[in-house]
Amino acid sequence: MIRIDELLRAYRKGLFPMADPDDEKVYWCQPYKRAVVPLLSYMPSRDVARILRRGEFEVRIDSDFEGVIRGCAAPRKSDSQTWISPEIMDAYLTLNQLGVAHSVECWHHGELSGGLYGLSMGAAFFGESMFFRRSYASQVAFDHLVRRLKDRGYLLLDAQIMNPHLQKLGAVEIDHDEYMLQLDIALGKKIRFI
Question: NCBIfam families annotated for this entry?
């Protein structure tokens, strides 16, 4: 079982947990290169902007956190394995109950169509995972997250490990020392996600 105080302390030190997909053993990650999303320069793609204008999705915050984390942990077409073990899921469900972990959800005709979840600490948001069941749902959730963070004065959106999808969303890689500097500044501020 992951102790909540240890988990929060780890994030403050630039670490985050992942589970081995084969045996579900939890280990701590601290990549040398960190993916972050520069909040001030973020712009949605033309396709996402079009979807936003059409208002296809109802966006909610924390109305079904468990549904989002389960959606993120579910096997994907491209990869049947997940790093979100039951132990990690339980820890984040507790963090949600404590008001530290949050979900941004896209609903379409009353069904959860996609979303993302992460942790809010100070002026930093640590994006953990996203999923979709309907095209563009996770990207719309991401757009709403970025706008919420900008509106509230957040300084850091940590996307953890770069991948092609994050790169399309505007993430860039920074080295560990720069990340820790940005993290330290962000943790020194008090901002409420909700």
Answer: aat
- Answer yes or no: are the C-beta atoms of 7 and 17 closer than 8 Å: yes
CA distance linking residue 177 with residue 34, whole number of Å:
10
At 88 the pLDDT is: 96
Q: How many CA atoms lie within 13 Å of 109's alpha carbon, on the beta-carbon side?
A: 2
Alpha-carbon span 95 to 119, nearest angstrom: 8
Q: How confident is the model at residue 78 (pLDDT cuts 50, 70, 90)?
A: low
Contact (Cβ atoms closer than 8 angstroms) between residue 119 and residue 128: yes
Topology at the third CATH level for domain 4-187: Aminopeptidase (3.40.630)
Domain ranges for the chain: 4-187
Say which amino acid occupies 84: I
Alpha helix (H) residue ranges in the chain: 4-12, 46-54, 65-73, 86-97, 137-152, 164-168, 176-187
Q: Higher confidence at residue 9 or residue 21?
A: 9
Separation CA 21–CA 175 (nearest Å): 27
Whether the model pTM is above 0.85: yes
